[in-house]
Amino acid sequence: MDNDLGDLEQDFASAAKWLGVAIVLLLTLAWASVAFSAPRAENERECTVAADMAVVARALAEERLEQPKAELIMRRIYDVSPSARGQQMLKTILSAAYRQGELPAGKFASKLFLVCMSTGGNMDEVLGVSL
Length: 131
Prior knowledge:
Elements: H1 2-35, H2 44-62, H3 67-77, H4 84-99, H5 105-118, H6 124-127
């Protein structure tokens, strides 16, 4: 009887350990999906500003301006210094603009605006994942 109780305690400890591992894994995956997604616009005005940033960022990329210099120019145009979200949005849009290949600035901005408005601010489809 004592042996059965010992086995039961051992099984319970093993199950609890695996449950803990599963919970940690799920929390890590949830955090990663939030941490590595593109910034989300909170309203129509932010979608408009994001599209405006996109046309400027893509135009700078089309001119083959070095990305760090383009970021400095964009920081002068868009005062995002007081906002961590604004800074992240600027960097993410700029990175995506430099990855767009041959897509013209106007089309990149239009696509971003349409996706932003139709998804309630989720720009992942255009901006991709921010790493």
